[in-house]
Amino acid sequence: MGLDLRRLLDIRLYQAFDIDEDGHALAGSDDSGSTQLIEIAPDGGVTPLTALPSACSGRYVPGERAVIVSHDDRGNERHQLSLLRLTPEPVRPAGLDDLEPLVHDPRYMHTLADVVPGRICYLTNRRNGVAFDPVIRDLATGAERVVVVGDYRYDEAALSPDGKWLAVGVSSPVTANAEHVALIDLTAPPGHEQMIEVTAADAPAMNVALVWSPASDALLFSSNNDREFLAVARYDLLAKERTWLVADDTVDLIGWLSPDGRTLLVERNEDGASQLALHEAATGRKLRDFRLPATGNIGGIRLPPPRWAPDSRAIVVSISSPELPGDALLITNPAEPQVRTLTNSARALGEDVPARPELHRIPSFDDQLVPCLVYRSQSADHSGNPLSGNPLSGSAVVVVHGGPEAQARQNFDIVVQALAAAGHTVLVPNVRGSTGYGKRWYSADDKRRRLDSVADLAALHAYLPKLGVDQARAALWGGSYGGYMVLAGLAFQPALWAAGVDIVGIASFVTFLENTSAYRRAYREREYGTLADQRDFLVEASPLTRANDITAPLFIIHGANDPRVPLSEAEQIHAAMTSRGHECELLVYGDEGHGLTKRRNRTDALPKAFAFLARHLSA
What we know:
Blueprint: H1 5-9, E1 14-19, E2 25-29, E3 36-40, E4 46-48, E5 56-60, E6 66-71, E7 80-85, E8 100-103, E9 110-116, E10 119-124, E11 133-138, E12 144-146, E13 153-159, E14 165-171, E15 179-185, E16 195-197, E17 207-212, E18 218-223, E19 231-236, E20 241-246, E21 252-257, E22 263-270, E23 273-280, E24 286-290, E25 307-308, E26 314-319, E27 327-332, E28 338-341, E29 358-363, E30 369-375, E31 396-400, H2 414-422, E32 425-429, H3 439-442, H4 450-463, E33 474-479, H5 481-492, E34 499-503, H6 509-515, H7 518-528, H8 535-540, E35 554-559, H9 567-578, E36 584-589, H10 599-617
């Protein structure tokens, strides 16, 4: 029968959120149309836990049969936190009325950062709408301690086992790509907490996966502070020294420490594919590699991080790959790792073989090489000869990821697979600004270098003949920042592109920064430039400024509740196009935010977008 968009849209995807002391796995399933919580028992039995109006995620409460549920309202990202008790055993999936409210104020965001016995830590912007303060909440009494140490955006937080420290990942309010790790002494009286810097503040760096040693005498985290690539670091509280435990000068490494403090699970990111190994935590010495059931990835912005079981004898991991679209994995017996797939997303593929990526390095205008994954139907002729009978063979679609500080990884993407199955050659680049290729590359598009990343699109277009593609039949597709890249490609390179599909993209950096949520403005001005000091360049780099130069037809998809890129961005570029009789279609979904999270909306929007491309790219 072959893969097509209809079949691909019907694939059920899964991910792993947590594992408890009895071996139950807390997972997410989009079987209902949006990601809801399920529990997988040690014997493989599955219990649906939630049936909420929008997607949700969760964590177990250690020592209790209960789950902290994080949920928002129709994609507005103002997450609220609720408690779902699992005793007695649930007889039906919980709706909103079945949850016990923990932290509810629909005006603000509440991001769950850590869960320890009897307490949680979450990050919220309710003090002033911009800064994110850590809040430590006692689950038994409801008492809260708000930790205010400056007007920072905290990206991560981890409570020490002894309760004396809070480790935080902090974003600089002014410097692009500058993050640092700090400790907050919780033994100080509330309101008098001080921040102790672990890594240099305002230095270009990324820091992730903060976790404490069981004795609370050391903090482990992954960082590229003073390095080009992420490596696993250990900070000794007594000596006040940082050492690198596991490092590589060519790729990013991220590590997760076991609760007993003995073992590190380390991911090696090779061109967007994950390789896993276990290391001795005390020395960093590699103990053993182990194979995933398919080449793919376990991390990135789409998937939750791996979680160790409280007894350190198992790990749950999410994986996405062409062979396994989205599954929860269980890794047992770290001494001799055994990997078991808890879910079966691949069953919908049947005997059909999805497109697998080819790795290319494409020279750009300044001789820099743009990493690019190329996908083609498994039945395609890769010699450059068009397949007879398919009017879309010889066409190309360039799919640009969002972020920009993100990476197109070797995962399963319904859009990419469906485009390849339809006959297009699909290029999925990591243009400058992308992570996964070192600090220099992800910083190469900051502020006034923004249009250098757009120039990478022209380099991709110039490379198309090497892939057997007709350059006159090439389109752009992207979401979020990728949507900006679509609009920028059409506006700044109008002679190159035959069509564009923009999903929740930025049309004007000026109006985007003026109208986005206050917390987003403070965060994104570091990357794009400030309205106060760089307005001239923000106008220059905005596709809306060049809207009259766009000659290619445009298809736009947007969520009405988008808190990041307001709907007005889509509306104004649509108005600019249609006011001069230019072909431009706009689809707006009233129950979506920053993207399409519900299957019914994807099932409505994507066939229309594919038909649009077919009209404009057919031979």
